[in-house]
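Support request, please re-run this one:
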Amino acid sequence: MTEDPKAAGARPETQVRIGQGPHGRREVLVKVLWIGVWLVFLSSPVGDLAGGRHTPAGTVAGAIGLAAFVVAYLALVFRQMGQPFSPRAVASLLAVLAVLAPVLMYCLGLRWSGLFVYLSVACGATLPLRAACWAIPGCGLVMYLVGLRWGAYAVDDLLPLVVLIGFAMVGVGQLVRTTVELRKARATVAQLAANEERLRLARDLHDLLGHSLSLITLKSELAGRMLPGQPDKAAQQVADIEQVSRQALVDVREAVTGYRRPRLAVELAGTQVALTAAGVAAEIPAEPDLAGVPGEAESALAWALREAVTNVVRHSGADRCAVRLARRQTLDGPILELVVEDNGSGGGSGGFGNGLTGLTERLEKAGGTLEAGRVKHGFRLVARVPAAPAGDIGSGA
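Re-run finished. Output below.
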């Protein structure tokens, strides 16, 4: 099912993008709330400061240390979700957290042990996988050792949470990195698809306009020679030019929209007209039997015939051209073979130009092959395509 473009375009407005910085106030608010929910573990340190259990100097020092800890944590985690700090800045902020958490807990009591939860989260969210696997258990160990000052086993209940939530953030970090890589891969695939579409369009326009313009040029020359003494025949040639021009316009529009699929029978009829108009004696087979031939294979063979005839008219200088179409049985299954042979020069050295290169790509996509080159008395093009659907190939071997 095709996705609605409007719906696709609206998606960024209704979802927070993982692995990207916030865009707009709404996304900033959502990410702040998502991070702020986890500040619930600060309730114990704040309550401890508000309870008056410490000296005024200790309360002020604790408040300053807690504020510095929260600022460093929020800056580190919030930026890491969008536009990460440099490794040096990350290491500096983690060092601030790693110093403040044990110092505050050691000096002010067990109610500050929740700071190690944030330290573990920061390690899991910002450090590489291997470093995080060492740092998170290290956070738990340091918390346990500092807790011994206030009594053995005082932090046993919090220790599993510190380790588990740290590794949970490692999983979230991996998810973010995977999402970013998938987004990049999707952009690459889209670029490749666009490039392939441009190549397809270039091949279509070359094949369509090369054939049609060659025929228009030829008929224009004939009309010019007939005009002084045979105005009626010249008028017929001009009418043919108009018809070919209109058909070329239709073909170009269809090719641009991606719906064009030439039919082999139509191309055979057009071949007879084009060769006769060029003064080339033509040998054309009867209407072919295309039962069971895939549409893509027939289309590729029709393009091959069109390109071959265009080359005969424009480049070969031939006065005879034979077109043969036959079914053959091979070890890989039945094939349909098209042979176009003329007695001309072949238009040069016989190397593949843009037309034959594009034609080779078309045939390969349909599972076929192309052979073209000089023969003893002219030039020959042989195109072969499967004469049965892909699932049936080889059934007759």
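The mean pLDDT is 78. Strands lie at 281-283, 320-330, 333-342, 369-375, 378-386.
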